[in-house]
Design goal:
Number of helices: 19
Shape: elongated
Largest sheet: 6 strands, parallel
Oligomer: single chain
Distance between the termini: 31 Å
Structural class: alpha/beta
Helix content: 40-55%
Number of strands: 13
Strand order of the largest sheet: 3-2-6-7-1-8
Strand content: 5-15%
Length: 539
Amino acid sequence: MAHGRLRIFLGAAPGVGKTYAMLAEGQRLRALGTDVVVGFVEPHGRRPTAAMAEGLETVERRTLWHRGVRFTEMDLDAVLARHPQVALVDELAHSNVPGARNAKRWQDVRELLDAGIDVVTTLNVQHLESLNDVVRQITGVRQQETLPDEVARGADQIELVDLPPEVLRRRMVHGDIYPPDRIESALTHYFRVGNLTALREIALLWLADRVEEGLQRYRAEHGIVAPWETRERILVGLSGGPEGETLIRRAARISARTPGTELLALHVVPEDGLARVAPAALDEQRALLESLGGGFHQITGEDVVAALLRFAEAENVTQIVLGASRYGRVRSLLRAGVGERTIKGSGPIDVHIVTHEEAAGSAALRLPRPGRGLGVRRFVAALGGAAVLLPVLTTLLVVERGSVGLAGALAIYLLVVVVVALVGGASPALLAAVAAALLADYYFSVPLHSLVINRPEEIIALVVFVATAVLVGTAAGTATRDTLRAARATSEARTLSRLAAGVLRGQDLPALVELVRENFGLRAVSLLERDPQASPVPH
């Protein structure tokens, strides 16, 4: 049996015409020959709404008694037995009277959808669970009936029923919404222009996010990578350096010039999990970004530029803001900077390079910092370093051969082996130790320029050197791996902390899943929910 489709008429406040629009859609479908019934409609005494329901088949309501008071609710069993093509069910967030099969009307609607019945329903934005606190701060009224956001997000179609605040207040004055005894109180409290304007904006923004989700889904399904400039999205690349605040403020000024612009920031964590920046500095930049209305994101990636561009494509970014390089000309000659490589790979995305006080602040070449992780790149770098350092040192030592001797040469070679071990671990250190031993034998052991060794003490010295180098290399490699594991554990702890903070802030499940996807640099994450009615899988 095919699953039913859910259509929601969404409004910012009571009286905008959601129920009327739902009934009008029912009349349109009925005129086309569709089997339509009214499962539940509450006209609230509004004559135009009641008139629009005329001619539509209505399933008789079920009567329930609670604390001596008579209530009527939708008769779910009767609607299921009638099994129309489309059921009109008003007030999706409504709480059923105790004694009904389900506590909430949206649960009734879910049963109708599971039975293959299409449902057209209504909802006010203030009843969404995620917006409950925001609405209370604006209006001073806490909504007792709320709806989980995922129910509304799962609708096949959401249509906004909108009225300007002035028109809605005029309808109130004319008695089209509330009875006369409630009009003055409503106009001076809930239905103030400021409240209605804010609720209208919330409804528009929430619906815009749903439209954006649909667009992203369409782009993913059709493999569309190039950005569609449906709205400006500005992405700030944060390295965690001191220039971050300058970049954020600059991006915020760019964003302020175009209404509706979305401001994002991204920090790429290396795959080895090792922190390159102080977490406190990054936290301060994140706080500044959020105070300016931006959203902070963090992903992992081996290559910063590739990760940055991948994120920009996934989020349909139209502009990227980066800081000018902090490296001098010498280092720039060895490798293009992040900004230059981003520009080359950005395609239609505009890239802004912003100067700052730290730009070109250090032009000195530096040796690689130890403990930055193992892998092919580190292995190759270590071998390359050994291939350069050993010949250079040998040349210098040969010049001073008379004053250095075999023992002095081995001590200096051992220093090279230690550096190689710290960069690449035990394997390249072992190769460097063997190469250094051969060089020492060839240039500093008698007879010179020969691998033959005549003196026993020189044999002992070379054997001890190789053994010592192997031990030092193994110890350095172990220390590097231990540091790597600790750093990865720290990175995972930070990720779990962000997830926990999201839960405490009340983020919904899709937002938490998206946070997991970002932190682990994944293209997509699927969340599978086990059917509680299904039989357990045998082990």
